[in-house]
Write a structure and sequence with these properties.
The structure holds 2 protein chains of 2 kinds.
Chain A (H helix, E strand, L loop, with lengths): L8 E5 L4 E6 L8 E7 L6 E6 L4 E2 L4 E4 L5 E6 L8 E8 L18 E6 L1
Parallel strand pairs in A: 1-9
Antiparallel strand pairs in A: 2-7, 3-4, 3-8, 5-6, 6-7, 8-9
Chain B lengths: L3 E3 L3 E4 L5 E7 L5 E8 L3 E8 L6 E2 L6 E7 L2 E6 L8 E8 L9 E2 L3 E5 L1
Parallel strand pairs in B: 2-11
Antiparallel strand pairs in B: 1-3, 3-8, 4-5, 4-9, 5-6, 7-8, 9-10, 9-11
Classes of the chains: A mainly beta, B mainly beta.
């Protein structure tokens, strides 16, 4: 899996947009960008993924630069419940990986703290 | 609501005991995983399975074994628990179907070995 670089921590005011950056300059052609988050004392939760186009779902938006070397996860109206560690992961999609290649590797992520 | 269920949220065991951590998923996923998470070390993969009765070692398999007799169930076994196995254990599953994206994690089992 391609290496990613994320800031260690970020703060955001409740109700404002939280923009979490991720650098993945060594991403290869068949690798997607995935975002997960982990709220304290819970298991990680899948948020969104994308290949090269911007994506949006009910949880967040994902903006991928044209050269695909970086991306930004956007939480449009952050709430206190969005306080969590956010992980950016770059890898081929699950349906391509078979057998032993299918494991998911987490880095250290970004600790997002949403405050009043 | 689809999910991954781990049998215990909190568990306290004595050194030397044999410990079973159970994980069940109801999504018909082919792949299942066991991770442990420790402060400062992040999530580390212990074992995973991509089919019934198939298993592969992850990054830290020492002291653990696994069993997958049925597609929906993946068990982690600590043959002789030790204090350095005190940790949060997370089970996850995923599909090999291109229409089904992402890993689903359980809520975790916090194991304390005394």
């Amino acid at each position: 899996d391609a290496k990613t670089t994320q800031p260690t921590s970020m703060d955001c005011a409740e109700g404002r947009a939280a923009n979490l950056p991720c650098n993945h300059s060594t991403i290869s052609g068949n690798e997607y960008v995935y975002w997960y988050r982990q709220i304290h004392s819970q298991g990680p939760q899948y948020i969104i993924h994308g290949l090269k186009n911007n994506e949006t779902n009910e949880m967040a938006s994902l903006i991928i630069t044209e050269d695909r070397k970086s991306s930004t996860l956007i939480l449009p109206h952050a709430t206190l419940r969005d306080t969590a560690v956010y992980y950016c992961i770059v890898r081929p999609p699950e349906y391509i990986l078979t057998g032993g290649g299918n494991k998911l590797t987490f880095g250290t992520g970004t600790q997002l703290k949403v405050e009043l | 609501d689809v999910k991954v269920t781990q049998s215990s949220r909190y568990l306290v065991k004595r050194t030397g005991e044999k410990v079973f951590l159970e994980c069940v998923q109801d999504m018909d996923h082919e792949n299942m995983f066991w991770y442990r998470q420790d402060p400062g070390l992040g999530l580390r993969l212990i074992y995973f399975s991509y089919d019934v009765k198939m298993k592969e070692k992850g990054d830290i398999p020492e002291g653990y074994s696994v069993s997958r007799e049925k597609k929906e169930r993946f068990s982690l076994i600590l043959e002789s628990a030790s204090t350095n196995q005190t940790s949060m254990y997370l089970c996850a599953s995923s599909s090999s179907d291109r229409a089904r994206v992402g890993y689903t994690f359980g809520s975790g089992t916090r194991l304390t070995v005394v």
